[in-house]
Design brief:
The complex is a heterodimer. Chain A has a domain at about 1-105 and about 185-260: P-loop containing nucleotide triphosphate hydrolases (Rossmann fold, 3-Layer(aba) Sandwich). Chain A has 12 helices and 12 strands. Chain A has helices at about 1-5, 25-30, 65-70, 95-100, 120-130, 135-150, 165-180, 195-215, 225-230, 250-255, 260-265, 305-310, and strands at about 10-20, 35-50, 55, 80-85, 85-90, 105, 185-190, 220, 235-240, 240-250, 315-320, 325. In chain A, the strands form 2 sheets. Chain A has an 8-stranded mixed beta sheet with strand order 6-7-8-3-9-10-12-11, sandwiched between helices. In chain A, a hairpin with a 2-residue loop joins strand 9 (about 235-240) and strand 10. In chain A, helix 5 (about 120-130) runs parallel beside helix 7 (about 165-180), helix 6 packs across helix 7 and helix 7 runs parallel beside helix 8 (about 195-215). Chain A is globular, with a radius of gyration of 22 Å. Chain A starts with a helix and ends in a 20-residue tail after the last strand. Residues about 340-345 of chain A have low confidence and may be disordered. The longest helix of chain B has 18 residues, at about 190-205. Classes of the chains: A alpha/beta, B alpha/beta. At the A-B interface, helix 8, helix 9, helix 10 and helix 11 of A face helix 8, helix 9, helix 10 and helix 11 of B.
Chain lengths: ~350, ~325
């Protein structure tokens, strides 16, 4: 990890928070009750080095997508800094942000709603090239074909509309659109969650190839641990708006130290019929984000929770090289867990 | 093993503007008493439509044009509507993927839980139905069941709604439960809870369960036997261990190779995706439907039909070239 730290990060997030004001309606004003606050992302800091794929994993409502969108200012954060090559993009005026957007791109989850149904592939890709003046008009056609080739679509795709493509092919168009800008940083927000497994593998392999070919730096958001493990060089785990663990891939999956990360790993059903457990990996459900529990937010579900956890929120601290954990009892979290009882045959 | 449901040559078609779409194509399988039988496949493979055909819960335009489904000596597909209503919900229950959409938002949980019991007369009085409802809620792990009977579905989380739907399915003590992607809409830790609840209940009550899923992990963790569907057809049926250790169809093989697996040491192997995409079911390819994507395909795969044939004990495959499949790497 030392080498990683020596390189200046391409993107650095410092104390990023996004709060939503809920129920600030007429009734609340009339009764002078303070509106509810939802902390979607709460004081998250991380740095991403050039050439890294940083995997961000968490369940629905953990704030992973909000964090991804804050990095591109698609959602305006409430507090914190997002430094892109040392420049805080949150302070940039609109006009300068426009130029910055070329360097920061996003691939969306849903390849059906993120493409304009009335535009052909040529129009879609041609538009981004023209708007950002990325190539002279006479070169547009050639560049569009080059992009299609890059993402593995046939050349005759240029004149077709999104409805003519399958889910996996649409996701390739979404990727081509992001790549058209020659971005320096890409947020991939659950890019393979909406497609079938046979197509998911195609898209994952494409992203891995493109990373090697173009040296892409990426924040890869997913709820599926095995997908994140597959593509990432470093992984962060989020729970209720907080980053609870962060480590290089191998370390995170071989020696997870946060009880939540461990629970996630145990809960994922593995395609291995010899590997069974009847024990539920994590009991309970996440509490309401409007009234998060005091202390550690995970304490209501944590098998190791103590009084300290109910009072003081644990800070994210470095416990090994590049391995960060926010848990008071990380030294008690045994991994691998004691042998699970085999399922009666 | 005693068969409880025998499905033969089930075929369901849906007319579309482009022509007739065969969603379920000549599907045959036997469900044994007290087992968990998995039906796995990608979207559009016909796994949900198979379940819906059996319970006559198809979209209005769809028609089951052929086949039989024999349960206790009578063919479910030919029972007159009145007799069929005695079976559906009572003898054979179904659990759907989207629990929130299944529950009626304007009725209390208690009423929704007791409705089927009272309609099928499995309990004599409303009071008895309520007592059973409380017991059911406790069984599926809903805390403070007496109080929760008064609640509405919006007061429950997604996971709790799925527990409720399971309780409703169990309310008439069915012999068979068809569970259509019961955990797909849930987060992974909740999915784990619901799956283990379902397996535990199945074990305890000895009910026969058909578990429809797209997730090979869910299959490996819960099923005794599995059918793999592709483009409306069953291409392979085997016991779970054989399916995962010695698959006899290139599609099954391909599915296993493209699922990313968690590795304890954090090391990853490259994925081997299946090239291409599933066929259009209005104009499916002639011959074996998998041949355009199949690494073993040859001239003989492009014509004719490919019925399931015995390839091992309790193991059938539709592939004529299954012997060319090498051992799993």
């Amino acid at each position: 990890m030392n080498d990683l730290r020596a390189v200046p990060p391409i993107l650095e997030v410092k104390g990023l928070s996004k709060r939503y004001v809920m129920n600030a309606g007429f009734w609340q004003q009339l009764t002078r009750r303070p509106p509810d606050l939802l902390h979607a992302v709460d004081d998250v800091s991380l740095r991403i080095a050039p050439g890294e794929i940083f995997g961000l994993v968490g369940e629905s409502g953990s704030g992973k997508s909000t964090l991804g969108r804050c990095l591109l200012r698609l959602v305006e954060p409430t507090a914190g800094q997002v430094l892109f090559r040392g420049v805080d993009i949150l302070q940039l005026p609109r006009a300068q942000m426009q130029g910055m957007r070329r360097k920061l791109q996003i691939i969306f989850q849903d390849p059906y709603s993120s493409l304009n149904p009335r535009m052909t592939v040529r129009q879609m890709l041609g538009e981004v090239l023209a708007v950002h003046r990325l190539c002279p008009p006479h070169r547009v056609e050639a560049r569009v074909r080059e992009l299609l080739h890059l993402v593995g679509l046939p050349a005759d795709a240029v004149d077709r509309f999104p409805r003519h493509f399958s889910g996996g092919q649409r996701q390739r168009i979404g990727i081509a659109r992001a790549l058209a800008m020659e971005p320096e940083f890409i947020v991939a927000d659950e890019p393979v969650s909406a497609v079938d497994v046979s197509i998911q593998a195609q898209v994952l392999n494409l992203l891995i190839d493109l990373k090697a070919q173009l040296g892409l730096t990426m924040l890869f958001i997913a709820h599926d641990l095995s997908v994140v493990q597959h593509i990432s060089t470093r992984v962060g785990v989020m729970y209720m708006g907080k980053l609870v663990e962060m480590a290089p891939r191998r370390l995170l999956f071989s020696q997870p130290r946060h009880p939540y990360t461990q629970g996630l790993l145990l809960a994922a059903p593995q395609p291995d019929p010899f590997h069974h457990s009847t024990r539920v990996a994590l009991e309970g459900e996440p509490p309401s984000p409007l009234h998060p529990p005091a202390g550690c937010r995970f304490h209501t579900r944590c098998p190791l929770a103590s009084d300290r956890c109910r009072q003081a929120p644990p800070p994210l601290q470095e416990i090994g090289e590049g391995h960060w954990v926010a848990c008071h009892h990380h030294d008690l979290a045994v991994w691998p867990p004691p042998a699970a009882t085999p399922w009666a045959a | 093993m005693e068969p409880i449901l025998e499905v033969r040559n089930l075929t369901t078609q849906i007319p579309t503007r482009r022509g007739l779409l065969t969603a379920v194509d000549d599907v045959s399988f036997t469900l044994h008493k007290g087992e968990i039988f998995g039906v796995v496949g990608e979207s559009g493979s016909g796994k949900s439509m198979t379940c819906r055909s059996l319970l006559r819960l198809l979209p209005s335009s769809a028609r089951t044009v052929q086949g039989s489904a024999v349960y206790r000596g009578s063919d479910l597909l030919r029972l007159p509507p009145k007799a069929f209503n005695q079976v559906r919900g009572r003898e054979i229950a179904m659990i759907f993927q989207d629990a929130m959409a299944v529950l009626n938002p304007v009725h209390r949980i208690g009423d929704q839980l007791t409705e089927a019991m009272l309609a099928h007369r499995v309990v004599a009085t409303p009071a008895e139905a309520r007592a059973r409802a409380v017991e059911l809620l406790r069984k599926v792990g809903i805390p403070a069941p007496e109080r929760r009977l008064q609640d509405y579905p919006h007061q429950f989380s997604g996971g709790m709604c799925q527990r409720l739907v399971i309780a409703i399915a169990l309310s008439c003590q069915p012999q068979i439960i068809l569970a259509d992607e019961p955990t797909t809409a849930l987060d992974v830790t909740i999915q784990d809870q619901i799956l283990k609840l379902l397996i535990g209940l199945q074990h305890e009550l000895g009910v026969s369960l058909v578990l429809v899923t797209h997730d090979m992990g869910v299959v490996a963790q819960s099923c005794q036997r599995v059918a793999v569907m592709y483009a409306g057809q069953i291409v392979e049926i085997a016991d779970t261990v054989s399916l995962f250790t010695a698959p006899k169809h290139p599609y099954t093989r391909g599915l296993l190779a493209c699922v990313p697996q968690l590795a304890a040491d954090g090391e990853v192997l490259p994925l081997a995706p299946i090239p291409g995409s599933p066929p259009d079911l209005v104009h499916p390819p002639a011959g074996c439907r998998f041949h355009p994507r199949c690494p073993l395909a040859s001239e003989e795969c492009r014509h004719g039909t490919f019925p399931l044939q015995q390839v091992g004990q309790q193991h059938v495959s539709a592939c004529i070239k299954h012997e060319e499949l090498g051992p799993l790497s």
